[in-house]
């Protein structure tokens, strides 16, 4: 069912090594040309890259009640179970695999996402959806606490840990991995500031207008119904609230894109197999990236769901993009 | 004085009229300059310009319709543009206590019934509040100078310039304490081009008030020199503890005298070089 294309190890291990350098985007073009000429034809992904440019609502590209699961198309009700399955399997090794596969870049992306785009403040009430093992949620709480300390210094008063972060995920196994990390966090009042909720992004168990900010990081492309997810986000945000999304996107540098395709279609599932013993789950991750709308289209989808001041920023030529918008 | 000397160096190199474009790429980008377009055109030719637009020109990679055109629609809510304007206005009432900071914008947001998070509509954060203040001061300066136009008409050019500088600096007086941090923010790489653009608008207005109609090379050197005078006076002012900034006003006078001497020598030199190529005598207002 999955268009699996794991390839023989030898070649790939070599490619993986070289690609460490490529991730930097300052790839020497000569080297790239050589690599592409020998590898490109065989390694083109199964399923052609369709130009995703239809109207704003995310639903448009789905036929009937089926949604894409990687490159295959499955029933909407089945999709959720499949996604859940994927993350259940990868949960224990999830953090290490992230570092491994993005060459630690995901840490830099998340720091930037939280520190600059979200820019937390004292007393903030934050919701991190598809929060998984808490990577982003912890960062947000850390920044909130920092802001609270700064405020206390300025006012010459006691530090008040008023800010809270709720980490929400459809998958209990991911949340459990996250909870294990709380004790070791270097964050003031971490325990008190965190809550964990197992829930689907498409129907959140929170009252209207209960959060200042909402993040979804590497999560929205896994959600079966993007419109439902966005309208729920808007519902639970206060007026003036900020929606921020970090997600893999479409690479707009041709050389980097080809290398990236090669890497992600072949090397990632391979590492997934070798390290986490599960190539299919990682195959799915890679395919779902290709299926996700490009930057402009996704921006239109966010706007169509009622957000204002929507903008995006590409990191590393669009390997990932940060979209954000407001409930005004 | 070191700063002025540098500015002056730039002035001399301006013979090619492309010096600034090489030296300050961000600025020329912000001004939509292309090779062949005269450097910093006279103000009548400047494109209509609004502050948030500059932020977007420099910063954003997103498409042309970055949500700015949104007005109230079926889903309710206010337009982003309106919210920005309201926020800026309300934030200024908190600057006295909180400085030009995100906290001031947070407070304004809450006051208007929003979550503090709304402050993030300013992608370049407090820099956009500072730019709002700069624009506001400039328009207030122009207004006051306009009201005193008869009085000013009877002045000598150096007095006209000194008056403009004083009027503008006085508008900053209520916020001198917050200003050093604002200067720091505006000197950060993402904000440098915008800072220079605002400085350019300011000195251009000042020369306009002084009745300068030059279109020759002097146009450029005069503005660079006045920019130096203004900037150094501003820095002097934030450290000035004398009563009613008396020391600052003396400083302004001294700077202008110095620059006028320098300017005379400089424009003679520039005109000399210019006339080697094409024998057209400089027609700048004599200072
Ligand atoms: C790639 S992980 C991202 C984890 C974390 N946010 C990060 O950046 O490291 C994607 C997460 O989305 C969750 N997820 C998938 N579908 C979801 C849904 N419909 N609602 C909520 N979470 C979902 C998965 O369980 C998984 O933990």
TrEMBL record, chain A:
<keyword id="KW-0489">Methyltransferase</keyword>
<feature type="binding site">
    <location>
        <position position="217"/>
    </location>
    <ligand>
        <name>S-adenosyl-L-methionine</name>
    </ligand>
</feature>
<protein>
    <recommendedName>
        <fullName>2-methoxy-6-polyprenyl-1,4-benzoquinol methylase, mitochondrial</fullName>
        <ecNumber>2.1.1.201</ecNumber>
    </recommendedName>
</protein>
<comment type="pathway">
    <text>Cofactor biosynthesis; ubiquinone biosynthesis.</text>
</comment>
<keyword id="KW-0808">Transferase</keyword>
<dbReference type="GO" id="GO:0032259">
    <property type="term" value="P:methylation"/>
</dbReference>
<feature type="region of interest" description="Disordered">
    <location>
        <begin position="41"/>
        <end position="66"/>
    </location>
</feature>
<dbReference type="GO" id="GO:0008425">
    <property type="term" value="F:2-methoxy-6-polyprenyl-1,4-benzoquinol methyltransferase activity"/>
</dbReference>
<keyword id="KW-0472">Membrane</keyword>
<dbReference type="InterPro" id="IPR004033">
    <property type="entry name" value="UbiE/COQ5_MeTrFase"/>
</dbReference>
<comment type="function">
    <text>Methyltransferase required for the conversion of 2-polyprenyl-6-methoxy-1,4-benzoquinol (DDMQH2) to 2-polyprenyl-3-methyl-6-methoxy-1,4-benzoquinol (DMQH2).</text>
</comment>
<comment type="subunit">
    <text>Component of a multi-subunit COQ enzyme complex, composed of at least COQ3, COQ4, COQ5, COQ6, COQ7 and COQ9. Interacts with PYURF; the interaction is direct, stabilizes COQ5 protein and associates PYURF with COQ enzyme complex.</text>
</comment>
<keyword id="KW-0496">Mitochondrion</keyword>
<keyword id="KW-0830">Ubiquinone</keyword>
<keyword id="KW-0999">Mitochondrion inner membrane</keyword>
<feature type="compositionally biased region" description="Basic and acidic residues">
    <location>
        <begin position="49"/>
        <end position="58"/>
    </location>
</feature>
<feature type="binding site">
    <location>
        <position position="169"/>
    </location>
    <ligand>
        <name>S-adenosyl-L-methionine</name>
    </ligand>
</feature>
<dbReference type="InterPro" id="IPR023576">
    <property type="entry name" value="UbiE/COQ5_MeTrFase_CS"/>
</dbReference>
<feature type="binding site">
    <location>
        <position position="133"/>
    </location>
    <ligand>
        <name>S-adenosyl-L-methionine</name>
    </ligand>
</feature>
<dbReference type="InterPro" id="IPR029063">
    <property type="entry name" value="SAM-dependent_MTases_sf"/>
</dbReference>
<dbReference type="Pfam" id="PF01209">
    <property type="entry name" value="Ubie_methyltran"/>
</dbReference>
<keyword id="KW-0949">S-adenosyl-L-methionine</keyword>
UniProtKB/TrEMBL annotation, chain B:
<dbReference type="Pfam" id="PF08511">
    <property type="entry name" value="COQ9"/>
</dbReference>
<keyword id="KW-0446">Lipid-binding</keyword>
<comment type="pathway">
    <text>Cofactor biosynthesis; ubiquinone biosynthesis.</text>
</comment>
<dbReference type="GO" id="GO:0008289">
    <property type="term" value="F:lipid binding"/>
</dbReference>
<keyword id="KW-0831">Ubiquinone biosynthesis</keyword>
<protein>
    <recommendedName>
        <fullName>Ubiquinone biosynthesis protein</fullName>
    </recommendedName>
</protein>
<feature type="domain" description="COQ9 C-terminal">
    <location>
        <begin position="193"/>
        <end position="262"/>
    </location>
</feature>
<keyword id="KW-0496">Mitochondrion</keyword>
<keyword id="KW-0830">Ubiquinone</keyword>
<feature type="compositionally biased region" description="Polar residues">
    <location>
        <begin position="58"/>
        <end position="74"/>
    </location>
</feature>
<dbReference type="GO" id="GO:0006744">
    <property type="term" value="P:ubiquinone biosynthetic process"/>
</dbReference>
<dbReference type="GO" id="GO:0005743">
    <property type="term" value="C:mitochondrial inner membrane"/>
</dbReference>
<dbReference type="InterPro" id="IPR013718">
    <property type="entry name" value="COQ9_C"/>
</dbReference>
<feature type="region of interest" description="Disordered">
    <location>
        <begin position="57"/>
        <end position="81"/>
    </location>
</feature>
<dbReference type="InterPro" id="IPR012762">
    <property type="entry name" value="Ubiq_biosynth_COQ9"/>
</dbReference>
<keyword id="KW-0809">Transit peptide</keyword>
<comment type="similarity">
    <text>Belongs to the COQ9 family.</text>
</comment>
<comment type="function">
    <text>Membrane-associated protein that warps the membrane surface to access and bind aromatic isoprenes with high specificity, including ubiquinone (CoQ) isoprene intermediates and presents them directly to Coq7, therefore facilitating the Coq7-mediated hydroxylase step. Participates in the biosynthesis of coenzyme Q, also named ubiquinone, an essential lipid-soluble electron transporter for aerobic cellular respiration.</text>
</comment>
């Amino acid at each position: 069912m999955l268009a699996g294309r794991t390839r023989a190890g030898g070649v790939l291990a070599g490619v993986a090594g070289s690609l460490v350098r490529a991730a930097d985007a300052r790839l020497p073009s000569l080297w790239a040309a050589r690599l592409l000429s020998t590898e490109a034809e065989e390694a083109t992904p199964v399923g052609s890259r369709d130009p995703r440019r239809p109207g704003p609502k995310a639903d448009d590209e789905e036929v009937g009640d089926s949604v894409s699961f990687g490159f295959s198309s499955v029933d909407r009700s089945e999709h959720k179970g499949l996604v859940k399955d994927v993350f259940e399997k990868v949960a224990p090794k999830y953090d290490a695999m992230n570092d491994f596969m993005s060459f630690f870049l995901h840490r830099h992306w998340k720091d930037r996402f939280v520190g600059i785009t979200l820019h937390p403040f004292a007393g903030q009430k934050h919701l991190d959806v598809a929060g998984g093992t808490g990577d982003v949620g912890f960062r947000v709480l850390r920044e909130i606490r920092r802001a609270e300390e700064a405020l206390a210094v300025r006012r010459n008063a006691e530090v008040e840990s008023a800010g809270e972060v709720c980490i929400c995920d459809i998958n209990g196994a991911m949340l459990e991995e996250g909870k294990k990390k709380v004790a070791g966090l270097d964050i003031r009042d971490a325990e008190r500031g965190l809550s964990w909720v197992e829930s689907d992004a498409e129907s959140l168990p929170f009252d209207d207008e209960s959060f200042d900010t909402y993040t979804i990081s590497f999560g929205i492309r896994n959600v079966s119904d993007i419109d439902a997810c966005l309208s729920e986000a808007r519902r639970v945000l206060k007026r003036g609230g900020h929606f921020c999304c970090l997600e893999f996107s479409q690479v707009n540098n041709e050389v980097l894109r080809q290398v990236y395709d090669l890497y992600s279609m072949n090397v990632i599932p391979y590492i997934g197999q070798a390290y986490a013993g599960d190539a299919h789950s990682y195959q799915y991750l890679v395919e779902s990236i290709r299926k996700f709308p490009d930057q402009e289209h996704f921006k239109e989808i966010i706007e169509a769901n009622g957000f204002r001041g929507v903008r995006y920023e590409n990191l590393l030529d669009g390997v990932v993009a940060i979209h954000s918008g407001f409930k005004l | 004085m070191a700063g002025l000397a540098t500015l002056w160096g730039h002035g001399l190199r301006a013979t090619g009229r492309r010096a600034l474009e090489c030296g300050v790429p961000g600025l020329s980008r912000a001004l939509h300059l292309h090779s062949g377009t005269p450097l910093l055109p006279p103000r009548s030719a400047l494109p209509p310009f609004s502050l948030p637009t500059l932020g977007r020109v420099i910063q954003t990679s997103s498409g042309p319709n970055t949500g700015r055109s949104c007005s109230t629609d079926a889903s309710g809510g206010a337009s982003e543009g309106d919210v920005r304007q309201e926020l800026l206005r309300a934030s200024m009432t908190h600057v006295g206590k909180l400085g030009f900071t995100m906290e001031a914008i947070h407070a304004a947001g809450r006051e208007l019934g929003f979550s503090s998070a709304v402050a993030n509509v300013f992608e370049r954060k407090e820099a956009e509040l500072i730019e709002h203040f700069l624009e506001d001061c400039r328009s207030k300066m122009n207004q006051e100078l306009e009201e005193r136009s008869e009085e000013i008409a009877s002045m000598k050019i150096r007095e006209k310039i000194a008056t403009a500088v004083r009027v503008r600096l006085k508008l900053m007086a209520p916020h001198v304490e917050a200003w050093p941090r604002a200067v720091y923010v505006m000197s950060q790489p993402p904000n440098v081009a915008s800072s220079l653009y605002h400085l350019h608008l300011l000195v251009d207005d000042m020369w306009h008030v002084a009745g300068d109609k030059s279109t020759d090379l002097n146009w450029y050197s005069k503005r660079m020199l006045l920019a130096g005078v203004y900037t150094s006076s501003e820095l002097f002012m934030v450290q000035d503890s004398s009563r009613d900034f008396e020391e600052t006003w003396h400083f302004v006078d001294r700077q202008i005298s110095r620059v006028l001497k320098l300017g005379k020598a400089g424009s003679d030199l520039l005109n000399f070089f210019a006339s080697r190529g094409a024998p057209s005598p400089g027609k700048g207002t004599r200072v």
